[in-house]
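re: ur question from earlier - yeah i can do the single chain one, its not a big deal. heres the input i used so u can compare w yours
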Amino acid sequence: MSENVPVVLVTGVGPGTGAAISRRFALGGYRVAMLARTRDRLDALQREIPNARGYRCDVTDETQLDSVIEAVRRDLGAPKVLVHNAVGGAFGNFLEIDPKALALNFQVNTMALLYLARRLAPAMVEAGEGAIVVTGNTSALRGKPRFAGFAPTKAAQRILAESIARELGPKGVHVAYVVIDAVIDLEWTRTMTSKPAEDPFFIQPSAIADEIWHVVHQDRSAWSFNVEVRPFQETW
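and the output i got, formated as tokens:
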């Protein structure tokens, strides 16, 4: 194993954004550690994507994370890049939601970022380089009525990422929050909206992945923290 080949760890690797991020970084010459709770999906992506390996993991479980990160370091090397794409969501107003759902979403969206950053950032600081990117959405910026079980957790996630960025930036580690202001083009979102694939209404997972690749590789003299992406027809 060449020590010069960078490693990216991607959480929440499903059929959409997570898989697209994994493909983009593999294409760019990275070894890819793909984390998700579904083993069959990981196995399929591992067969499809070169230099990618799947690890079944619940990112809210610190014991599992410790075991998986140890395995990633052993199998692929120390991650130079973390993309926290795992997401927990529940919809309803504050009277309708189950408070336990909000607590679980907080664990996935916010606490898992804390767990991961605490475990991966020290090696990046020691190396003097690295990147942590979090995929967010407009719920991190506003609290609409039916997002009471979700928006608070994404807002907390964004603020945590900003706190981490202010700590790690001067140490050579780039932290960014990518707000996805759009409906992502997936099989279930097409069914939900009755719109065809590639409709301009959607944002494409591959386009999100390209932007994350760009953010990770920005020149140090022009790092971004708040990054927003949306389709050209999106009202905002």
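The beta strands are 7-10, 31-36, 52-56, 81-84, 130-137, 173-180, 183-184, 202-203, 226-229. not sure if urs matches, ping me
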